[in-house]
Amino acid sequence: MGGFLTPDPAVEKWVRMRESTNKYFRWNSRNLGFVGVLGLVIPAGIYYLADQNQNRFHWAAQGPSRKVAATEEQEDA
Question: What is the rounded CA–CA span in Å between residue 24 and residue 17?
């Protein structure tokens, strides 16, 4: 029913590398760059945009004005 699976040497090498990253990991400029961008710059940028736009929209003022509706009713009477 099922065929015999032969292990791919490239996949096996990748698995061995993934299992031993804690032994061979070293900080270098590339790693620090990734940590700086993904861990500091992007969250700081999102915070800055959220802080700048926090009070820009007034969602309570989007509904119909009651004074306009009241004056229309009074004109009809």
Answer: 9
Cα 40 to Cα 51: distance, rounded to the nearest angstrom: 16
- With cut-offs at 50, 70 and 90, classify the pLDDT of residue 33: very high
Cα 17 from Cα 10, distance rounded (Å): 11
Cα separation of 39 and 41, whole Å? 6
The DSSP secondary structure of 1-32, one letter per residue, reads: -PPPPPPPHHHHHHHHHHHTHHHH----HHHH
Structural element, H or E, at residue 71: helix 66-76
- Is pTM beyond 0.70? Reply is no
* Residues 14, 24: Cα–Cα separation, whole Å: 14
